[in-house]
Amino acid sequence: TREHIAFNRIAKDAGYDLDAIDRRVAARLQEINDRAPILNLAATMALEHFTAMIANELLSNPKHLAGGGEVSEMWRWHSVEEIEHKGVAYDTWLHATRDWSRWKRWKVKSLMMLMVTKTFVGHRFDDTLNLLAQDGLTGAKWKARVLWYLLGRPGMLRAQFGVNDAS
User: Residues near 165 by Cβ (< 8 Å), separated by ≥ 6?
Assistant: First the structure.
């Protein structure tokens, strides 16, 4: 939490308005309050897995953080932390579902991973476009550039799906 607050402070100090993003996150957290705790754990496990995959890509491919100075250093540290979170979340999941069949565990975590991936990617894409718009970078050209970064070169998202040669 401390690092997320620090990163957001850096972005706000640089002139970015994060209120819309913060409101969406708060609304999303409110939506899950009434959900069964085991589903929230499954969502946490899937989200931590997804963010650990991104962290691995950030650490494995220096092109993503080149020239970012102090912010790049923070992202490197945060990436290591995300990889650690993945293990904690998964171990907690295994303990909480120890009486479940292997099939039920797989089914719930796979479905949750699909939902988390769709939501996470969609929200990050929208957030990126929001921040670019605050710099006056709007329209189809900038959407295409973000998609190229994710799916073309360097292929940040493509790498998450095991498609190599993202260099």
Answer: 155
User: How far is 153 from 97, CA to CA, in rounded Å?
Assistant: 39
The tokens 């950030």 sit on which residue?
Answer: 58
Distance CA 107, CA 118 (A): 17
Question: Would you say 46 and 56 are in contact if contact means Cβ atoms under 8 Å apart?
Answer: no
The whole-number pLDDT of residue 165 equals 56
Tally of CA atoms within 13 A in the half-sphere of 110 that contains its CB: 6
Cβ atoms 120, 50 nearer than 8 A? yes
List, run by run, the mean pLDDT of 10-residue segments along the chain (167 residues): 80 92 86 87 90 88 84 86 87 96 95 90 92 95 92 80 60
CA distance 77 to 61: 15
Could you write out the DSSP letters of every residue in 27-50?
HHHHHGGGS-HHHHHHHHHHHHHH
Q: Cα–Cα distance between 129 and 148 in angstroms, integer?
A: 13
